[in-house]
Amino acid sequence: MENRTISIAFIRNMLTGCGLSSSYCENLLRRAGVDPKAINSTQARVSPTQLSQLNKWITEATGDEAMGHYLRPQKYGTFNILARYMQTASNVQEALERNVSFYNLFDYGFRLTLLRRGDSVHYRIEAEYGVVLNNWVYEQLLMVNHRFLCWLTGSPIPLTRVNLNYQTPAHSGEYHYLFFSDTRFEQAHCEIIFDEKLLKLPVLRSNQELEEYLAKVPYEFLRSNTRASSYTEQIRLIIKKSLPLLPSYEELADTLGLAPQTLRRRLRQEGCDYRLIKNELIRDTAIGYLLHDNKEVKTISYVLGFSEPSAFIRSFKKWTGMTPKQYRDKHSDEVTEVTS
Question: Coiled coil where (predicted)?
Answer without folding.
Answer: none
